[in-house]
Design a protein that fits this description.
Blueprint lengths: L1 E10 L2 E7 L8 E5 L6 H16 L10 E7 L2 E7 L7 E4 L2 E4 L4 E3 L2 E3 L13 E6 L4 H20 L8 E3 L2 H11 L7 H11 L1 E12 L18 H15 L8 E4 L7 E9 L2 H10 L2 H13 L3 E10 L6 E2 L5 H16 L4 E6 L7 H14 L5 H5 L11 E6 L2 H4 L6 E5 L2 E5 L7 H7 L7 H15 L6 H14 L4 H13 L1
Parallel strand pairs: 3-18, 3-19, 10-11, 10-17, 17-18
Antiparallel strand pairs: 1-2, 1-4, 4-5, 5-6, 6-7, 8-9, 12-14, 12-15, 13-14, 15-16, 19-20
């Protein structure tokens, strides 16, 4: 997918909002910057609501008046609708197609006479937010409830069209990544480069009964599961038998009824079991999809993973990884699994726990993985510019992220959006100026400037800097966004 134009009449503080992405600014990764309450997250939320509406448009009215234009591969699609009205149709390459001709097949929209077009909406909308966001989770939870019923009977491996990443997904992603063959580039380019992870030591999958669809409590019937859920549990059970570990599967019984089994725990050494599951079900991303199906249907209680890290003798539990490691693993891992599948990634401040070096790598890696080619290389005949399959839209406060993009940064203020030009390679203080940070009273602006200069000189622990920090914290608050940026900068220079 490639977003080209978004217009919203009124949504929260977005009034007469118009975001046009010209050819000059076209890129797989688009960066939204702005102060708190500027409207950055509202843009992501509006996009979620738009695609939620489109997915359910045959029985749902538009939540607000909007117009959106994007490409799916080489096909341009425009969709407009008025608040509280039903969708009439879609413009595909400037030809209007009424809703009656659109078919919803396998969670996608298709138009029969466009035989080469797999779908006309993103195959997946992937949400990520650092911390808790009730605004995002309300929509994703509705999809979980809807697809919990669908997955109970479904025989195919699939993801819901909208999914919000939760902490349990991080370990699902890691297991899926370990199902790649051991000579795959991911081991050098990802595990070893960023995390010093050498291999997986062991993992446990905890399967529980879901009382909402249980008739027979005996595990011999796999808790009365059917379809792909039952098939997956059966395969896990069969592979466990080959492990020759008499302690597993471990049957966890009800404390009130010793005959009733409430949970079954499977434990596997290394990643051979993952290879076998991949052989059965098809691809690496299928491992993630299957685990998510178990979670969506409330049959997955937990996952426990231990990994081997370089220079650490004993295996460590996944939970021992830092928040930044877990965050980066989830973000980049999801990209590994779904890249090139016409997905829309909406990430709210994905850099929160990332060190400056990882922030610096984030967007260039997204572009590289998307087959993105600089225009000057195309003009000189070195490459043919490929069509863009995925769109990443990120909100951030990070001056480091801003300095890594060449064209595709935008500044939001009071619900209005403008492009930020010439941001590549900016210093941190120059980046802050681009974001109109120094618009407060002159004395505070000067003290902030002095404080950042001391940090860049490596003097953050000296008396002058500490005194300035204390004064600024008293006036602005310790959690002020600019002091948080200062902390990021300190970690970079120390």
């Amino acid at each position: 997918m490639q977003l080209l134009d978004l217009q919203i009449a009124s949504y929260k503080n977005l009034n007469e909002f118009h975001w046009e992405i010209t050819e000059e600014f076209a890129s797989p990764a688009l960066l939204l910057m702005g102060k708190n309450a500027s409207g950055k997250t509202n843009v992501l939320e509006a996009l979620i609501n738009i695609f939620d509406f489109l997915i359910h448009s045959k029985n749902k009215k538009a939540p607000f008046t909007f117009s959106i234009t994007y490409k799916i591969e080489v096909v341009k699609i425009n969709i407009s609708c008025t608040k509280n009205e039903m969708l009439e149709g879609v413009s595909i390459d400037e030809k209007f197609v009424p809703v009656s001709e659109i078919r919803r097949i396998n969670n996608t929209w298709k138009v029969p006479h466009y035989t080469d077009l797999d779908n006309i909406i993103p195959e997946n909308v992937i949400l990520y937010y650092s911390g808790f966001s009730q605004r995002f989770s309300n929509i994703s939870n509705r999809f979980k409830q809807e697809y919990s019923k669908i997955f109970r009977k479904q025989k195919a491996v699939a993801l819901p069209p909208v999914i919000a990443l939760e902490p349990i997904h991080y370990q699902m992603i890691l297991l899926a990544l370990f199902s790649y063959s051991e000579d795959a580039p991911i081991y050098n380019d990802f595990f070893e480069k960023y995390f010093d992870i050498e291999s997986i030591d062991s993992f446990e999958i905890h399967i529980k009964k879901h009382t909402g669809w249980i008739k027979d409590h005996s595990f011999e019937k796999y808790f009365d599961t059917v379809g792909i859920v039952r098939n997956f549990i059966e395969q896990i059970h069969e592979i466990q038998k080959l492990e020759e570990n008499p302690e597993f599967p471990k049957l966890v019984r009800s404390p009130k009824d010793k005959e009733r089994i409430n949970k079954v725990i499977y434990k596997f050494k290394g990643n051979s079991a993952l290879f076998k599951l991949k052989e059965i079900f098809g691809y690496e991303d299928d491992i993630f999809k299957l685990l998510n199906i178990l979670y969506t249907t409330k049959n997955l209680a937990r996952i426990d993973i231990k990994v081997k890290k370089a220079n650490i003798e004993q295996p460590i539990h996944f939970d021992w990884l830092s928040e930044g490691e877990q965050q980066f693993l989830a973000i980049k891992g999801m990209v590994y699994l779904l890249l090139g599948k016409n997905s829309l990634f909406l990430w709210d401040e994905p850099d929160t726990f990332l060190n400056p070096a990882w922030q610096w790598d984030l967007i260039p890696n997204l572009e590289k993985g998307n087959g993105y080619v600089e225009d000057d290389y195309v003009e000189e005949g070195y490459f043919e510019k490929p069509f863009q399959r995925d769109q990443f839209i990120l909100t951030t406060h990070s001056p480091v992220l801003l300095s890594t993009v060449k064209k595709q940064a935008y500044f939001i203020e009071k619900g209005q959006i403008t492009p930020l030009r010439n941001t590549f390679g900016l210093t941190v203080d120059e980046s802050l100026e681009k974001q109109s940070i120094n618009t407060r009273i002159k004395s505070l602006a000067e003290k902030l400037k002095t404080y950042f200069e001391l940090i860049e000189q490596g003097k953050s622990k000296e008396e002058e800097a500490l005194s300035l920090r204390e004064e600024l914290a008293n006036k602005l608050g310790e959690n002020h966004e600019e002091l948080q940026r200062a902390d990021v900068l300190i970690s970079f220079y120390e």
